[in-house]
Design a protein that fits this description.
686 residues; alpha+beta; 8-stranded mixed β-sheet; 39 strands; globular
């Protein structure tokens, strides 16, 4: 395998497909996120994805930098209101609709600070500097102050964002070491209040308290997800606290059984709502709602249509909007607090409610049930939608003619269901090229394990477009542990990584072959993070795979436990002494089963990854080398958890497609198959 693929056909094609989608330098808006309707309901503000060039970060949703934009909700017209270097994100209207507060890293990449845009005059001003980088903002009800969530320089961003440390190396000469293990060396996340009139900011969270997420809870308090330690692993045992903004007083409101995600307080601050769930990673929480009566200290657990909730939005004191996942469906509902009953507002299996990571919605106008959101499907471009009076109104779609034409010719998608060995009903998404099957099949396993594969527009992904164009079918399984299947299914992975969930994947392949969808001699598998572990693990358990690509994998649970920045994950999902010779840390580590592997493996990692250290990919690579197996290791020097920047992303797509093409060609020919590896199908004994 060559080091430099820039002259390769697949590299060029990946670059071209990405260019068609992003339209760099044209000023075209390719998607909207962080939507918020104006108080009058006639306009919305959003972070609009606009690409300057085919360089820099390529985010999970297939977009690059963002600019603040105003959207006319009657016509769909989008007007960019900011420009410059970096990204402008998280726009929020002031209560009177005259100002927009937002975050921008235009001065220093990755170091976001608060800015305020005057909608009428277009004045765009800086605000008081805070020590670190801003991650969230929220206006007070009176519009006089803004609550800021600030991460200290050197803090790690979440795994879904790349799991790298941001800033923190600008003090002292280059030889000064990093120091770990002492409180003074650890950066905390804190809450600050910015005063509009005085232009000053002050810290309101107490020293020694790490705040993962905070929101206004009435005029004099904030409700926050907190831990006493600042490291990423501490998030797994965080709780909910009430903090006084005047005196720093603090009271614990909820100590959860599991992990915490979205938090929101009613306008008066009387009730705090939070999502609790079994979770793999910060910022990808999907589960059950907890309602905390702040005065009484009691906690209730309302029903939310049996779905896994990912976002909460208060509509007055008695109504709580929510976005959720249930099986293959995206769901929008509203919870009535007086009755503790929920009502469904919108549901779709074919179309996903879009978001940078999880589905996101925005309240619209004065009626509690009216909502603004983005939606898409595999073969339907991202579309801005208003749900008004129970009726859906499509406002505008975002796609280039070139991408639309390419996607239209690539094939089709369907929801594919199967039954696990223990009887659990599961589903996944099957994308097939227009040629007749059975097809050479690439299985794409999502991370987590508590995450999911949604029906995202094919035009966002050069890998998916190129895979279909080359003749491969793609299968995206949502096995037990996936968001949307409920907390019992998520909890079943705890203490059983690589157990029943591995069997789910193999059962899906049996069902696909039996249905005539997949060629049993041409099945490949790939995945990142936990999907990288599962890819490595499956090829130690079955010899049905013709090729495999593992990305930012775990190959050795023991060494990963002691090098990862989220040891709390291992405590939750493996829950045992890592030195126990009979425990999961050892028995479920792919590196210890390398002798059974007959599948050619391409391992990919980022040198800056703080969740799964690049040594994890190296360990599996070296173990396979020792067995004489076919193995190649690719390390990207400037990447973290995932290959997220261009042009490295084009190189990644080219290498993965080339690997599958070399070992399981999508189009049958005697010449191709004559040079393939032996097709022994005996299953290894493990």
């Amino acid at each position: 395998m060559k080091t430099d693929l820039r002259d390769d056909r697949l590299f060029s094609r990946a670059r071209s497909l990405t260019s068609d989608w992003l339209r760099p330098g044209s000023g075209a808006v390719v998607a909207l996120e962080s939507l918020e309707a104006a108080p009058d309901g006639l306009r919305a503000v959003a972070a609009a994805s606009v690409s300057a060039s085919l360089e820099g970060e390529l985010r999970r949703d297939g977009t690059t930098r963002t600019r603040i934009a105003l959207v006319d909700l009657a016509t769909g017209d989008v007007a960019l209101r900011t420009d410059g270097q970096g990204s402008d994100t998280s726009p929020r209207w002031s209560p009177d609709g005259k100002l927009i507060a937002y975050l921008s890293d235009r001065d220093e990449s990755g170091i976001a600070s608060l800015r305020i845009l005057d909608v009428g005059s277009s004045e765009d001003r800086e605000t008081a500097q805070v020590p670190g980088f801003a991650e969230s903002l929220e206006w007070s009800a009176d519009g006089r102050t803004i609550l800021l969530g600030v991460a200290g320089l050197g803090s790690d961003i979440a795994g879904i964002q790349g799991a790298v440390a941001v800033g923190g190396r600008d003090q002292g000469p280059a030889w000064v070491p990093d120091v770990d293990g002492v409180p003074s060396a650890a950066p905390y996340r804190t809450l600050w209040v910015y005063d509009i009139a005085t232009g000053t900011a002050r810290q309101v969270s107490p020293p020694g308290v790490n705040v993962w997420r905070g929101v206004w809870c009435g005029p004099r308090h904030v409700a926050a997800i907190c831990s006493d330690q600042p490291d990423e692993g501490a998030w797994y045992t965080a709780d909910v606290r009430l903090i006084g903004v005047d005196d720093g007083s603090m009271r614990t409101l909820l100590v959860p059984r599991d992990q915490l995600g979205w938090i929101a307080a009613s306008p008066s601050g009387a009730t705090v709502a939070v999502v609790e769930a079994v979770c793999s990673d910060r910022d990808i929480v999907a589960g059950e709602v907890r309602l905390i009566d702040v005065g009484a200290g009691t906690v209730s657990r309302p029903a939310t249509l049996g779905a896994d909730v990912v976002q909460l939005v208060w509509r007055g004191e008695e109504a709580l909007l929510f976005a959720a996942l249930q099986g293959p469906d995206s769901v929008i509902g509203v919870l009535d607090l007086s009755s503790q009953n929920s009502r469904e507002l919108w549901r779709s299996a074919e179309r996903a409610v879009s978001g940078l990571v999880l589905p996101r919605i925005a309240p619209l106008g004065g009626r509690p049930e009216d909502v603004l959101f983005m939606t898409e499907s595999f073969f339907e471009a991202p579309t801005l939608v208003a749900l008004e009076g129970g009726h859906e109104r499509r406002i505008r779609s975002f796609v280039s003619p070139e991408t639309a034409a390419t996607v239209a010719s690539l094939g089709s998608a369907c929801d594919f269901s199967w039954v696990a060995p223990d009887g659990l009903e599961l589903h996944g998404w099957l994308l097939t090229p227009p040629t007749p099957g059975p097809h050479a099949l690439i299985v794409q396993i999502h991370g987590g394990p508590v995450f999911f594969s949604p029906p995202l527009y094919v035009g966002r992904s050069a890998f998916v477009q190129l895979g279909l164009a080359e003749g491969y079918a793609l299968f995206l399984p949502n096995v037990r542990g996936s968001s949307g299947l409920g907390q019992d299914a998520a909890r079943s992975v705890v203490g059983d990584v690589g157990g029943a969930d591995a069997a789910d994947h193999l059962a899906a392949l049996d069902a696909l072959v039996a249905a005539g969808k997949a060629d049993p001699d041409r099945i490949g598998v790939t995945g990142g993070s936990y999907g990288g572990f599962m890819t490595s693990w499956l090829i130690t358990q079955s010899r049905r795979f013709a090729a495999a690509v593992t990305v930012e994998p775990t190959s050795n649970w023991v060494s990963d436990r002691f090098t990862s920045n989220i040891p709390g994950f291992f405590d939750v999902f493996l829950g045992q002494d890592p030195n126990d010779p009979d425990g999961l840390h050892l028995t479920r580590s792919p590196v210890h089963h390398a002798a059974s592997v007959r599948t050619p493996l391409l391992s990919i990692c980022g040198a800056l990854d703080r969740i799964t250290h690049p040594a994890q990919a190296l360990e599996m690579h070296r173990a396979l080398q020792a067995q004489g197996s076919e193995t190649v290791l690719v390390t990207y020097p400037h990447e973290g958890h995932g290959v997220r920047s261009m042009p490295a992303a084009f190189d990644y797509v080219a290498r993965v497609i080339a690997w599958f093409t070399a070992h399981m060609p999508a189009r049958r020919s005697e010449d191709c198959f004559s040079e393939r590896r032996p097709t022994s199908r005996e299953e290894p004994t493990t």
